[in-house]
Fold each of these.
Amino acid sequence: MSKLKSIYFLFKNTSVNILFWVGAFCFLAGCDESSEDQYSLHKTNKKHWSYQGETSPEYWEEIESNSECGGTRQSPINIIDFNAVPTEKSEQLEFHYSSEIQLKKAINNGHTVQFEFMSGDYIIYNGTSYNLVQVHFHEHAEHLMSGVVYPVEIHLVHVSSMNTITVLSILGKEGEESEVIELFESFLPLKMGESKTIDVKCDINQLLPLDRTYYSYSGSLTTPPCTEGVNWVVFKEPIILSLEEAQKLKSNMPLDNYRFEQPLNGRVVYLNSSNTF
Ligand SMILES: [Zn+2]
């Protein structure tokens, strides 16, 4: 083997090892959807997924060969209210959001702007506790509501001690200014790949719609590796943010950072109107 080849193989194997261990860390730490580490590892890879051109969502299954992007229980979906099954379970979802959780980091990972939290806030969903890890944004929305597309979708990613994921999804439409969105945006602009360490208190309760009616179904991450088995909780009522706030978010993210609608494939979407607080 030539010296050049040896160096190549050493580099290749080292890269694979680094990818494995960072991947394993990310899985255990729950830094899932669109994590900064995923981005920084892949940014030199020309075939890394994106939202435009030859690496856009329609090619993810092909270019992310070890992903579940071609699976049958994928997200997002079109949630048709008429077909949603009212669930008999009440108090399925409990919120344990403190009025002063600490925001620790803001990141532009090249796919979205993401805000990470110190541990403390959590939800209990179907008897399991899930910690709030991060909040990020999509423009326009990924989930359709009976065919209607909202301008913004906010994902609150929660991870359990067993590394299972529940994402709370809040749709946003334009109107009055939102104080909590204003707080997030006070750390913008962020250039692609840039992050800021922050230390400010935040009340996630203010981000939730007043009416806590929600749809739930079993789906996937909406970005590669499109891992299935994700619990989705999508609030029926959108929140209101101003046009300027929506535009500021948009200018800090790649254009159209949403995945298109995925087939339901016989999955049931439940409607929970119990308004638990
Ligand atoms: Zn998302």
Amino acid sequence: MPYYTKLGQIPKKRHVQFRRPDGALYSEEVFGTEGFVGPTSTLYHINPPTQVIGWKTLYGTKPEYIESDVMRMRHLKLGAMPAKGDPITGRVVLFGNSDVEMSMCVPDEKMDYFFKNAMGDECIFVHFGSGTVQTTFGTLKFGPKDYIVIPKGITYRMTFDKTKDGEQEPRFVVFETANGSHIGPPPRYVSKQTSQFLEHSPYCERDLRMPELPLTYDKKGEYEVRIKARDLVHSYTYTYHPLDVVGWDGCYYPYCFNIDDFSPIVGKLHMPPPIHQTFEGHNFVICSFCPRLLDFHPDAIPVPYNHSNLDSDEILYYVEGNYKARKGIEQCSITVHPQGIPHGPHPGTVEKSLGAKETTELAVMCDTFRPMFPTKAAMEFDDLAYPRSWEGEHFPVSLEQHHADGAHRTGAKAKGGKAKGTKSKGAKAAKSKPAGRKSPNIGSTWE
Ligand SMILES: [Fe+2]
């Protein structure tokens, strides 16, 4: 994160004597990135963070990608993904490349250890479930639709609350950097002079939830911290509780941001995907498509134009809303549209969108600048019929209206004697109030 904050007790100056109540020194740790010229925090531990009594290798994490030579549109129906593992071991990598990995987790076990990802930053999108992330920087309480950003190297434990009757079982998506970059707000949202979020940013400091107390656990015992590094998870053993920090300050820490606090930017005519951008890492962006008012030009087409995002693969995760505008799409679906193929509104959805005033869509998108490859696990949920869903008549309402007016494709004279190219009264009426428009709420406008 770009701006400075602090929590707990810290001495007046850096790198000076700072003593525990028993007279011994606290152990200072400078937690730095990019060779100590990037975002950095300074922490004060009760115990020296260097004291380790044992370690061993547990399991490998390197994803195995398949069909890396196949380019096609994909749809995964992930609502049926079975629960397994804890919030770390239950993660299933679905897509990835050398920049970012995207996984989904439906956990059914608790973490009885702590975890540190020393390979990359994590951006967790919690779809269902609430709970607590205990970290070296304090406690984050989370709930549905929270993004939780946990930068590289931060020790944490994620615990879900017991699911109540009627609630969905916990489920979350993880975007993890594989190229060593850090996930944060787009630099264009933040002032170079002050690190303050600028007025055009769709969110600001007030929307970010910082770690809070409790922060410090002064306990002795045998504690396991699993560290992910070099595509392996290692088990390290400490003789004290790993969350033993009494205070910290700096610009490197975990935080939460709820997608409902994203304030969408709307326009007179269709606004491009970058206005939905929420975070970015090197070679990828994360965007939030949130409920919003639609374009207000009287002749606006509120669904996206067909587009080729020539440098990007696009992955969309469907959170909630009306999925009728995309055939076969369900809650928890993921679609992939690779850089080589144009995409846009599904057949028949453009005319139906005309005049719509708002959308209830909620989706999370990851656009990458290099191809994203599926894993074998992803292909278990592959909807092979999806590419064919783009076949069919794209403008059935126009044609119905066209034929109702007595015209046809060959340009024969319409009823009433009007020739090809002239507008009948019916056609004019169709323009001002399209047939098939029933509701001011369009449902989905997916990019
Ligand atoms: Fe797109």
